[in-house]
Amino acid sequence: MNALTSGILSRLHASRGYLSGESLCREFGITRSAVWKHIGRLRDAGCRIEAVTGSGYRLEALSGTPTAEEVSLFLETRDAGSVFHYHKQAESTNLLARNLAAEGAPEGTVIVAETQSAGRGRLGRLWVSPAGANLYFSLILRPKVPSFRIPQITLLAAASIRRALLDACPAVVAGIKWPNDILSGGRKLCGVLCEMQSDTDRAHFVVAGIGINVNQEVFSGELQGKATSLRLETGSSVCRSVLLAGVLKRFEELYLQWLQADDLGFIRPELERHSVLLGQRVVVERFSQQLEGIATGIAPAGELLLLAADGNELKIGSGEASLSNTYH
Predict the structure, then answer these.
(1) Strand 48-52 and strand 135-141: pairing?
(2) Helix, strand and coil percent figures for the chain, each rounded to 5
(3) Residue 312 belongs to what domain range?
(4) In this structure, are 251 and 294 located in the same domain?
(5) Residue 174, in any domain of the structure
(6) How do residues 253-300 score in pLDDT, each as one tens digit?
(7) How far apart (Å, rounded) are the C-alpha atoms in residues 110 and 93?
(8) For position 328, what pLDDT does the model report?
(9) pLDDT over 70 for what percent of the chain?
(10) N or C: which end of the chain has fewer CB within 10 A?
(11) CA dihedral defined by 271, 275, 280, 284, rounded to 10 degrees?
């Protein structure tokens, strides 16, 4: 979408009623025929625009596709999303982001894909990425903090996403499953995958990859009964452009606070309050071993706290956690 088409979209979105073709001609210095062509491009992109003789044009609905032009209509951030790349198809947004970051892309760069052919979750698992329904995006960060703090970004992102989901869908019940998932009704709604390039003492860049099930209505195979979407949870479709702008806003708010803090202590009560593991019997798989216990909290540095059967408190920095029915 070129700058003129994007500008006309912005004006239509800002208008509460009809905009005459004549006013658009004057504002953008183009002919009525040119205005009509740009309206046609917006319609081809999926926007619903009403045209009434004598009144002009009125935007009835956006396409909902998370392009730079649509997301920018709702963006309220300083850096996040200031550089924006949209792809109809990509192997992986994290892979694209890592390449861009290595080439010097600035902090706040966002890479979005309509679908991914090789999207990944944690532990190398495939992230199924059907087109036209969900959000798949990565955010490039360059935090000036010691490398040992970088894993905290995963929980920071999870808290941010949960806030944004509630902004968009107040009725949804969403909880955080340490360290990187958002669940609703026990089913996976969102996942976070953070990757970094670093030296011993500092990170050169971090890529936060996020997948959110937004409007998907059917999950098949091994995902059936294990995954859900905002549409399934609420019964209504959600505008992906609005949701993406909301996630970026919420993340930037917490990220700026985190940069000024020593750890996750400032948001620890929220992480614990909305944890789906706390008080539950949990098994954590890490490095080919299993650790079991009752989840009692989240440490300021982001570790999961487990009370083992022998009474010792375990501090778990990484691993795959799940509820256990076998712990005694």
Answers:
(1) unpaired
(2) 35, 25, 40
(3) 281-323
(4) no
(5) yes
(6) 999 999 999 999 999 999 999 999 999 999 998 877 889 999 999 999
(7) 9
(8) 36
(9) 95
(10) C
(11) -80
